[in-house]
Amino acid sequence: MNTFLNQLKYFLIAAAAQVLIFNHIHLFGYATAYIYLLFILKMPRFATRNRQMLWAFALGTVVDMFGNTPGIHAAAATAVAFLRNYILAMFIPNGMTEDFTPGTRVLRWSAYIGYTAFCIALFCTALFMLEVFTLSRPLHLAISVTSSTLLTLLFTTVIESLNGHNR
Predict the structure, then answer these.
(1) What global pTM score does this model have?
(2) What domains lie within the chain, and their CATH numbers?
(3) Which of 5, 85, 91, 120 has the highest CB neighbour number within 10 Å of its CB?
């Protein structure tokens, strides 16, 4: 029960930060930071896929409701949650079998950056492909995906370095 309450607390913080602050930041009309992804990225390694996907879908739905985006955040966040453990497995040291929360204390900085960058890029690609739903403006799509990925990666890295510990 205590784990659920901690997850709920982080869920509410992530949703509030995204909806109240980060949804209103649009650098150069392209880049938006999707800081709520940190909630999904920091779930324990052996959290069940169904649990991860349920939390991600719920968080994406909250962001969609307040951002007036019909399901695209829920879909993109759920896709990341579905693939997260496979992506994480590419970056953890060989033979590591214990349960942990992904972060710089367990992973080296390079592995942590690689893991988060891969997940964020996947999210941004899915999000913008669903939002645009066309390839008629590929340069605009590429700039949006790249700039949002880099901005989100910057914010998540700063938060991780300030956090100093895993939850």
Answers:
(1) 0.91
(2) 2-163 (1.10.1760)
(3) 120
